[in-house]
Give the backbone structure.
Amino acid sequence: MNKLKSIFLLLLPVFAVMIACDSQANSHSIKGTITGASNLQVSLDLAHFDRSNVSLGRATCDANGAFEIKSEKPWDEGLYRLKIGAKQVYFILDGKESVVEITSDLSTIDRMEMQIKGSETMTCYAGIVKDLIANQLKTPEDAKAFIERGCTPLMKAFLTTQLLGQNAGPFIADFKAQSQSLAAAMPDSKYSKDFAAMITGLENQKNQQQAGETITVGMPAPDISLPDPSGKVRSLSSLKGKVVLLDFWASWCGPCRKANPHVVEVYNKYKSKGFDVFSVSLDRPEGKQKWEDAIKQDGLVWGNHVSDLKFWDSAPAGVYGVRSIPKTFLIGKDGKIVAVNPRDNLEAELLKVL
């Protein structure tokens, strides 16, 4: 996923700023007053999905935090990046704007607390990002609902990269749908071409990953028998007849710990309907206490927690071809694999077989 991450822009609060008007009646500008930004340098770039940027101008905030950056031509429809000192934010224009004005405070820009005049599209985007900050996304469906709030195809495409991009494999169909809309709205633009190229890269990476998988959909799940923290041996095969999420994780794995709340939520929702979790920890030989602490801290209330405490030399990890974590396998009632790595779409995959 590290390779994938380099494709995507950071999700930073979108905030529009500043570009100066001159005395000409047809001039175009973005201007603003940012409290706390006195004497800071401001730069504006046109940003793209491939992380390339085109510089559009620079300015310096005055003692009151006011600034302007001139534009000699109308704004293009596009994604813009504004830097104010160490702050960096993105926003979207639809190309219909003339003068855009924002008022904000440097300390609260990242919470999207600002007033915007002159751009309905920027206002739309700022509202979406502000709501994203205020509301934690728990499922892919939550993310998709925010994407659909986008006011332009470009906005929806950008939100798709931000909200589904870190684990894009299960959502290639969503990327393709946004690509079609973007190509129709902005034919032959760099945005539509770059987005299409991004999808090609995602498909190639997914195919390469699948080609290297040791365990694939339809195969019987190899059994695992290892001790739990108390020393009791627990076996994956004992859960046959249930739908089971086999979860490879570790107490030291940040992404695993971040994903755990969603697994807990799904477990609590469907445990009475025949769903269970079998967790295999790749903790270090000296990490037994950290493993036990993480189980308690993350509220992993199911009983099936096992480990041989051999780190990357874990025997079941080798059998299942686990080379990075978190790594999950959804196993059907018949003991066969029904989905590989269904973390972001776990509930949807579960409902297919539960």
